[in-house]
Amino acid sequence: MYMTEEALELLLDLIDIWLPDFKYGNNECGLRLSKVKNYFEIVSRNHKRVCEVNDVIIRHLVLPNHIECCTKPVLLWIARHCNRALVNVMSQYRPEHLVYREPEKYSDIARRPNNREMEEAYKYADELGLCWKPVS
Question: Is residue 2 in some structural domain?
Fold first, then answer.
């Protein structure tokens, strides 16, 4: 969902059911972990537009140590702006690639999310009244 408004408009007529990811709850994590600027503004704008016209299943990959800065803000945004969407709260994150090459830079995501973090994410989705499904 990190695309221009023009690209999104072209895709809206082609896709009936969307399965987008919504990974980061702020721009700082998006820049540091995926090297993209203005992640939250761009992705939330595009999710909102898609939710207005199509059926959506939003996937959120829970990252270790990112419950407060990413998971909760993403789930809250969905509840406020895209509440008809289904949500997959996913636990499949695996540390790979750059995490192993530069462990000091990515120490916060150098492990899988633990049970406490996943339970906290599921509980928060429930509290927000989201129709979600855990995916392992």
Answer: no
